[in-house]
Amino acid sequence: MAADRLSAIFSALADPTRRAILARLAEGDATVSELAQPFSISLPAISRHLKVLEQAGLITRTRSAQWRSSSLRTEALREVLDWMEPYHELWDARLDRLDAHLRRMQDHDADGA
């Protein structure tokens, strides 16, 4: 995966409105009007957010007659998860060590009490 693609994905995910749009699209496809409903911003602003999401590969947009629908593309999110996996494993290992250390301290305190 190109670093530029990962940067585009993270840049798109950095905006709370775009994250909310993705959360809505996780429930199913939606039109621009449907996506705009919970926000107090204009339809053109929503369209700009959708363009950023599309360029990052997070959504696809299709046109059917007068309707333009957006769909979530989970492949891009998988790329982010794949990139983050080594860090997830690192933190799991660190938390396991902390848990073991705390258990040893509790055992030591129980033995001394």
- What percent of the residues sit in helical stretches (DSSP H or I)? 55-70%
Give the overall silhouette: elongated
In DSSP terms, counting alpha (H) and pi (I) runs of 4 or more, how many helices? Answer: 5
Q: What CATH first level would be assigned? A: Mainly Alpha
Alpha carbon gap, first and last residue: 56 Å
Q: Would you kindly provide a brief summary of this structure?
A:
The protein has 113 residues and is an alpha+beta fold. It has a single domain, classed as Orthogonal Bundle (Arc Repressor Mutant, subunit A), CATH 1.10.10.10.
Describe the model.
Helix 1 (3-13) packs antiparallel against helix 4 (43-55). With 113 residues, this protein is of the alpha+beta class. A hairpin with a 2-residue loop joins strand 2 and strand 3. 15% of the residues are buried. The chain has a single domain (3-112), classed as Orthogonal Bundle (Arc Repressor Mutant, subunit A). The protein contains five helices and three strands.
Describe the structure using short key phrases.
113 residues, Arc Repressor Mutant, subunit A, three-stranded antiparallel beta sheet
Mind sketching the topology for me?
Blueprint: H1 3-13, H2 16-25, E1 30-31, H3 32-36, H4 43-55, E2 59-64, E3 67-72, H5 74-112
Antiparallel strand pairs: 1-3, 2-3
